[in-house]
Amino acid sequence: MKGKVLIVDDDPKIGRLLKFKLAKADYETEYCSSGGEALEKIPMLKPHIIVSDIDMPNMNGYEFCEKLRQDSRTASIPFIFLSGRTDTTDQLEGLRLGADDYVCKPVKIDFLLERMEKVMERAIKAKSFKSQADFSGNLSQMNLNDVMQIVESNHKSGELEFSASDGKTMGRILFNKGNLMKAQFGALEGAEAFYGLMDEEEGFFEFFGKEINEPEQITMTNMAALLQGSRLIDEGKGLYSILPDLESVLAKNSVEIPPEIIDRCGKERLQKILVMVEKQLTASEIINSGKMSRPRASAILSELLNSKILSISQNRQERKDKKKDEKSGSGLAIEEWLLTVMKNVETRKLSGTLEIGNRPLKQMIFFHEGSLVHAFHGKVVGKKALYRIFADKGGAPKFQAQAIVVKHTIDDEMKELIEDGNREVELLKDLRKASFNNIITVNHQHMEKVSRIKSRPGLTDVLTLVMQHDRVKDIIDASLLTDLRTYNHLLTMVKLGVINIQKEN
């Protein structure tokens, strides 16, 4: 037997039907036609779970549940309301009074059985805590907005824990006297974690009342947090009407981002999104990157697409074809033997140096326990050097296993380095001959636009080099940024009118 169920409903037909169906599912079942009758029999029956209607004469379900929770002998019995009332207010009231779940009629028996099992599992889990959860429920029936109303209206202090259907913890929110204090969701913390939890529509929640002594992390009011989260979720929904699907790959258009959009999105968050776009991640990968909440990432992408700052560069099939090519090793501009050696070092988690001989400049890649940590190409070091190594052809590799003591100048994953490096090699392949020897001059009549550049460190660095050098190649060589990023910054300044690029006479 899975356990003993007490069914409480003033309609005998429903009571008998539930008793029959639950008995077939291997439960021992008992039926009472009123809350009063149930209260008299519970000490003798000792049910493992109670399923009760709300609308009953003499004593309704709310009163019945409240009396159970006020008695220490029955306070911990799992309790589910099964009612025809579908209004959220009724569900809130049920949970406020101590019900563990609320299922609306009509209901399929399989769904009710599933809810009963989850409630009983959580009741067993709750016994490991010092006290039973004040209340708990299902996110598919109660969203975070509704749950917070219970916490705030009752001035509760404690922890609201969220778990997935497999029982794994998703995140938590801390409250002090009903006020939002702290939140954690995956790697996110604070308000971003709160917005991420607001977006969850599946899973379960449990509130455990306790004194909170942790430092305050979220300073806005409950209402302000809910309004901000709701706004982000609504704005993010617009993304689904813009994109054909979330597997679309996006590209940045050659337009300046207005200051008001930077202010609205946040400079740092906007930069994170643009970096992921530059890496050719799909919209889905950007939204689920964990660098910010899904509502925030969706809202920013929606704004950038509506403002024509971003556009769709690839569809789902093109993305699949590209990934297929990358997986098979075809379609890459990097020498295949070099990729094979690098991946072998990564797989075997080796430490050492990979020297590439028979090339005009001395070149070497450094590995620590399989991770690529440093590179030099002549006098150039870091990621810039690595991508230049990728661009060169020919050569003879020689790997020397040894301890690595050099300063780590690269911290990206191998996969990302190969993808980014290949893209840079491809894009710069034709540009070197065409424009690297061109002359750059500063347009002093438009220097007032330099104020726009100062807020972007990369542009500031490149503009400083423009003041020192007069040739595209010299600026790219002197820059600490990768060749492609430096070249793109030069193009941005050309569009702003700050510099001019002229062909060499």
UniProtKB/TrEMBL annotation:
The modification 4-aspartylphosphate is found at D53. Keywords: Phosphoprotein. It holds the Pfam family Response_reg. Residues 4-120 form the Response regulatory domain. Transmembrane segments: none annotated. It comes from the Bacteria. SMART domains: REC. GO terms for biological process: phosphorelay signal transduction system. This is Two component system response regulator, DUF4388. It comes from Desulfonema limicola.
